[in-house]
Amino acid sequence: MMKMEIKLDEDRVKRDGRFDIAELWQAIDKEFANACTKEVQPDGSVMYVGIPNKDYYSDINVAATVYKNTEWFAQYCVKWIWYDNDDDESLPFQDIDVLASQRAKNPLFKRWS
Fold this sequence. Notes:
Elements: E1 2-8, H1 10-16, H2 21-32, E2 36-40, E3 46-50, H3 56-67, H4 71-76, E4 77-84, E5 94-97, H5 98-105, H6 107-110
Antiparallel strand pairs: 1-3, 1-4, 2-3, 4-5
C-alpha cells in the first residue's frame, strides 16, 4: 500500500494573494482522483491513500513527478511525505520525506527553503 501526505502553508497562500487555496487543493486532488481516497488530517494536511485493486501506484508516482516540477507547490508545500510498505500489510510504512529530499537537490525547491 502507498499513501502520500501533503500540507500547504495556507496562511502564506492567502497572504501572498497570488492563488486561491481552494484551486490549489483542487489541482492536487485531481492528481490522486483515479485511485486514491482523500483524508484530511487534524493538522490540516491531506493524506491520499491508495485504493486496493486500483492503480494507485501510478497516481502517486505521477503526482510526485508533477509536483517536483511545479513552482507554486515548491513555494507553498510545508509537508510532503510518501508512505510505502511494498504492498505487504504486515510491514510498517516507510516514511519518505519527499520535501526534504527536494529541498536538498531540486533548485526549484531550494529557492523556497
